[in-house]
């Protein structure tokens, strides 16, 4: 079986990427290993996207009956030219956005359809949004089958586009493979080392962590307000770390961050802003945090929640999107707009180490069943079925 993989979603060289690029990289690596050379895989990759992480994937691919086709750019026209010169019978699209005018069957991996549900969250002109959403819709209609990262995303697809549910298969995701392998004494030791490394960076007190891109749907102002309300009630100083890349429509988020910085410090609690953490820094933050807080209004999956559970860290999340599906009974779920409930929960959880440990243990146990190996097997099964 010959499968092409459209990796135009990978960031340019030197950037690690997060979200969809991270998920695509991890899934494709696991697909290569799961195929074991039984499938011919062709990776179509923009030349500027081939960094150190990608090279390791590509070396594995070339060693397992695969090949790399370098694209001049990340455009659809560059992909189409490459497909003419180096054809495949089926194209898997991890970004979910199928390029127009591709003549072979394409299977998109859909992460969310937030742009359809909440266009106001995105920094696009009406013209560009109309163009991209129409192309996305056409890609779904033409697809022989569709992959979705969660049951929530599948349900959204079926509802909005009137799709036959049997055409949509849920893959789930797999989090961070390094964190996933940590357990027992190794996990405890990793947590201590992470705390020491963060202390060298100035994060010396117990802290609550938000990790992810700063954008409207992440609902960061609610977390900031809840933390401000809770500070005077903490039994000891509790910092808040906001870590992640700047996204779009940052006005209200920046305003909330500035307001939090100007408030008089209560009991020594401090706010830290960490921009663009590396993969290693992300792991340290997840391992060292007392609590990971995710107040998102909408998530197609909830990768950070899974990574926190893999790190053996307690999670409090909103009921937005797929977060309850990922966290289940292993975390605390709250309405995303209830500041008082969030403040109360932060105070109670931070005052109760036994509850935090119980949540962390349940999260770690739950995360074992969510792996990239599993997602890769599901993906390969669907792609194989299409070609047989």
Describe the protein's topology.
Elements (H helix, E strand, L loop, with lengths): L1 E5 L13 H16 L4 E7 L5 H12 L2 E6 L4 H10 L5 E3 L12 E5 L3 H4 L8 H17 L3 E3 L2 H11 L6 E3 L6 H5 L2 H17 L6 E5 L8 H11 L8 E5 L7 H12 L8 E4 L4 H10 L2 E4 L8 H8 L3 E5 L4 H5 L4 E3 L4 H12 L2 H15 L4 H16 L1
Parallel strand pairs: 1-2, 1-4, 2-3, 4-5, 5-6, 6-7, 8-9, 8-11, 9-10, 11-12, 12-13
Write up this protein.
This protein has 388 residues and is α/β, with parallel strands linked by helices. The protein has two domains: 2-174 and 371-387, Glycogen Phosphorylase B (Rossmann fold); 179-367, Rossmann fold (3-Layer(aba) Sandwich), CATH 3.40.50. The protein is 47% helix and 15% strand. It is built from 16 helices and 13 strands. The protein has helices at residues 20-35, 52-63, 76-85, 114-117, 126-142, 151-161, 177-181, 184-200, 220-230, 251-262, 279-288, 303-310, 323-327, 339-350, 353-367, 372-387, and strands at residues 2-6, 40-46, 66-71, 91-93, 106-110, 146-148, 168-170, 207-211, 239-243, 271-274, 291-294, 314-318, 332-334. It has a seven-stranded parallel beta sheet, with helices on both faces. Helix 1 (20-35) links the parallel strand 1 (2-6) and strand 2 (40-46). The longest helix is centred in the middle third of the chain and has 17 residues, at 126-142. The protein is globular, with a radius of gyration of 21 Å. It starts with a strand and ends with a helix. The mean pLDDT is 91.
Helix content: 40-55%
**SSE order in H/E notation?**
EHEHEHEEHHEHEHHEHEHEHEHEHEHHH
Assign the CATH class of the largest domain: Alpha Beta
Percentage of residues in strands: 5-15%
Provide mean pLDDT, rounded.
Answer: 91
- Cross-sheet strand order for the largest sheet: 3-2-1-4-5-6-7
CATH topology of the largest domain: Rossmann fold
Largest sheet: 7 strands, parallel
Number of domains: 2
Q: Please give the radius of gyration in angstroms.
A: 21 Å
